[in-house]
Design brief:
magnesium, binds geranylgeranyl diphosphate, mainly alpha, two-stranded antiparallel sheet, Polyprenyl_synt, single chain, Farnesyl Diphosphate Synthase, 308 residues, 4 strands
């Protein structure tokens, strides 16, 4: 049982069972993802897409989308196609990130990477297939949501993925590799785009589907931006402090690839402090939502305490 700060009275603690909440949500998402992509002809590509999509992972992005939709008065049913699409997009970005032309990784989520099993050609296509299907899935499967909101969601997803989001962050990351003088501004640019943009889209899409008022959308977006950067700082810390078994991927990769990271610029202790500060700033954005925000608050706290 995790005891979280009550958003309305910071001194009081309101119990919230985050492990149980995450477990319930994870099984709901696993089942929805499994149903989303059945095997068809040509079997090889569907198998490759399913291999990485169903390989586990924390499912943080779809959980954030569902939790925000419910916080804003919507239902799980309204958000589940978008939640699945977000996990498809995240998974495709991992498949492409692991390719020899990018980070060249052999392990992900405790398994061999997609290209190690299916070859580079199919891994590229599996990523492309997941990306295209994510958009089709939102457009075709979202029910009981006004079309205007679905269009807004599709637009937010496109922005998060493209040159103004993940792709842009990845380009600057690749350009910065091996450079000794990467500034904190450049590092923030990389991770605001590579990592925080998709987490922001998860929260924003959940709020949009529920029809949240603009002021709430803005607050929730700031919450997501803060946890997004905190998430990446912790990711950099774990690359140094956690084992391959804990991470499910090669540990110590950043140092090996001569990548600038938050700990390489600030040191471990200051990185931890900055992550905690961002989580506190994120939680402050939830003040006006009261107890409805307990899941988002507990997820923010989980970001700095996670071990993988
Ligand atoms: C999106 C079109 C398109 C291309 C991709 C390769 C690329 C461009 C971007 C890289 C994006 C990337 C891999 C960012 C890292 C984000 C990150 C911290 C991943 C780890 O997320 P977790 O810990 O992983 O949530 P699990 O396995 O738990 O889901």
């Amino acid at each position: 049982m995790v005891v979280t700060d009550n958003p309305q009275t910071p001194q009081e603690k309101v119990p919230f069972d985050l492990p149980a909440y995450l477990q319930q949500r994870q099984s709901q998402i696993e089942a929805a993802l499994d149903r989303a992509i059945p095997i068809a002809y040509p079997e090889k590509i569907y198998e490759a897409m399913r291999y990485s999509l169903l390989a586990g992972g924390k499912r943080l992005r779809p959980i954030l989308c569902l939790a925000t939709c419910e916080l804003a008065g919507g239902t799980t049913e309204m958000a589940i196609p978008t939640a699945c699409a977000l996990e498809m997009i995240h998974t495709m970005s991992l498949i492409h990130d692991d390719l020899p032309a990018m980070d060249n990784d052999d392990y992900r989520r405790g398994m061999l990477t997609n290209h190690k099993v299916y070859g580079e050609d199919i891994a590229i296509l599996a990523g492309d297939g997941l990306l295209a299907y994510a958009f089709e899935y939102v457009a075709a499967k979202t029910k009981n949501v006004p079309a205007q909101r679905v269009l807004q969601v599709i637009s937010r997803l496109g922005r998060a993925v493209g040159a103004a989001g993940l792709v842009g962050g990845q380009v600057v990351d690749l350009e910065s590799e091996g450079k000794a003088d990467v500034s904190i501004d450049t590092l923030n640019f990389i991770h605001n785009h590579k990592t925080a943009a998709l987490l922001e889209a998860c929260v924003a899409c959940g709020a949009i589907l529920a029809g949240a008022p603009e002021a709430d959308l803005q607050r929730l977006t700031r919450y997501a931006q803060n946890i997004g950067l905190a998430f990446q700082i912790v990711d950099d810390i774990l690359d140094i402090t956690a084992t391959q078994e804990e991470l499910g991927k090669t540990a110590g990769k950043d140092l090996q690839a001569q990548k600038a990271t938050y700990p390489s610029i600030w040191g471990l202790e200051e990185s931890q402090r900055q992550a905690r500060q961002l989580v506190q700033a994120a939680i402050a954005e939830l003040d006006s939502f009261g107890e409805k925000a307990l899941p988002l608050q507990a997820i923010a706290e989980f970001i700095t305490s996670r071990t993988h």
